[in-house]
Design a protein that fits this description.
This protein has 6 helices and 8 strands, in the order ββαααβββαβαββα. It has an 8-stranded mixed β-sheet with strand order 1-2-3-4-5-6-8-7, with helices on one face. The protein is globular. With 194 residues, the chain is an alpha+beta fold. Helix 1 packs across helix 3 and helix 4 packs across helix 5. It has one domain: Gcn5-related N-acetyltransferase (GNAT) (Aminopeptidase), CATH 3.40.630.30.
Length: 194
């Protein structure tokens, strides 16, 4: 599995990587993760394997987003949707800059829940998204009921903006500005670059 981005995080002494989702390789794993009781309320994809295959094919064909597996020391534990706000339903909820990006995520492997990995993984993919020099803001819109995830986004550097109505949920629109992110995590990423 060739990562699109890899980063050694000294704060947890693990290598964090993101590899593009491959339909044949990953569909069964992603379907399994979508059946987890802690995932279902927020993703609402507890559907048959055949229906999930159609869903994943459609999402992989959508050129405004890229799907990734998030890995810790080479072990896939999470799923990520990195997307351009332009072309997404959320673009109607605020006045987006053409190069704003957004992120969706889930931790799929239950054994990795509650071990402090969500923040380092989120921090790593936001850093990856900011490698696009035109992007000055990453957005998120977690379910307003998902207080744990909202808290992780805030720890990463996102700020609450406003509740927004989306087709499948009421989300909390959140912004992470490049300047805020780089100031907060400068030491983590400078150390990795040495």
């Amino acid at each position: 599995m060739q990562p699109a981005f890899s980063f050694y995080d000294y704060t947890i002494e693990k290598t964090l990587s993101f590899a593009k989702v491959d339909f044949e390789r990953d569909v069964a794993l992603l379907h399994k993760w979508q059946q987890q009781s802690y995932v279902v309320p927020y993703w609402k994809l507890d559907i048959s394997f055949e229906d999930y295959k159609k869903h994943l094919e459609k999402f992989l064909e959508d050129e405004h987003q890229t799907l990734y597996l998030g890995l810790i020391d080479g072990v896939p534990i999470s799923y990520w949707e990195a997307y351009w706000v332009r072309g997404d339903v959320v673009e109607n909820c605020y006045d987006p800059h053409p190069e704003d990006q957004g992120i969706h995520l889930l931790i799929g492997e239950q054994a990795f829940l509650g071990n402090g990995y969500a923040l380092p993984l989120l921090r790593a993919i936001v850093n990856f998204q900011f490698l696009n020099q035109g992007t000055e803001k990453i957005i998120a819109e977690p379910d307003i009921q998902n207080e744990k995830m909202i808290h992780v986004f805030e720890k990463c550097g996102f700020e609450k903006v406003k509740p927004i109505e989306l087709p499948d949920k009421t989300g909390m629109l959140m912004y992470c500005h490049r300047e805020t992110f780089e100031r907060r995590w400068k030491d983590v990423f400078e150390t990795a670059a040495i």
